[in-house]
Write a structure and sequence with these properties.
The complex is a heterodimer of chains A (110) and B (114).
Chain A (H helix, E strand, L loop, with lengths): L8 E5 L4 E6 L7 E8 L6 E6 L4 E2 L4 E4 L5 E6 L8 E9 L11 E6 L1
Chain B lengths: L3 E4 L2 E4 L5 E7 L5 E7 L5 E9 L2 E4 L6 E3 L9 E3 L8 E8 L9 E2 L3 E5 L1
Parallel strand pairs in B: 2-11
Antiparallel strand pairs in B: 1-3, 3-8, 4-5, 4-9, 5-6, 7-8, 9-10, 9-11
Classes of the chains: A mainly beta (110), B mainly beta (114).
Chain lengths: 110, 114
Amino acid sequence: DAKTTQPTSMDCAEGRAANLPCNHSTISGNEYVYWYRQIHSQGPQYIIHGLKNNETNEMASLIITEDRKSSTLILPHATLRDTAVYYCIVRNSGNTPLVFGKGTRLSVIA
Amino acid sequence: DGGITQSPKYLFRKEGQNVTLSCEQNLNHDAMYWYRQDPGQGLRLIYYSQIVNDFQKGDIAEGYSVSREKKESFPLTVTSAQKNPTAFYLCASSRLAGRTGELFFGEGSRLTVL
């Protein structure tokens, strides 16, 4: 599976959009981009995933560049409860386990 | 409600003792996983199982053992051979078929070796 690169940490003001970038320049054609988040001392929570089209659900939007070498997770109106570590993961369409990196620690500030 | 239950939430053990962490799911998922997390680090895969009576080693399987006798259950034993067992252990499950690959995690078990 392709490797991902994320910033170590980011801050975001409460109520503003949080844009979390992820680079995956070695992604291959059958690999999906997944986003999870982990609130302190809890199990990670699935947020969203996509292949090449932009995706939106009730939690977030996922924007994938046309060349698929990078993506951005957008939390449209960040709240204090969105403070967490966000993991960007690339995985093929098979059943291989997800490989978690260190993620981005997002701090939402009042 | 459907979900994954890990127990115990906190566990203390003395060096040289084996300890077993429980993981049960009622989501009818085929695949189950164990991850380990150390402070400030991401999750590392210990073992996973995609079908009953079969499992595969992950990246850090040494010092751990698992069994998968039932679809719903995937216990992890931390043996005395594991040199640094103090960590946060997370169990997860997923459907096997299909492309979503969404993992559902338990709340974790925090093991401290005294």
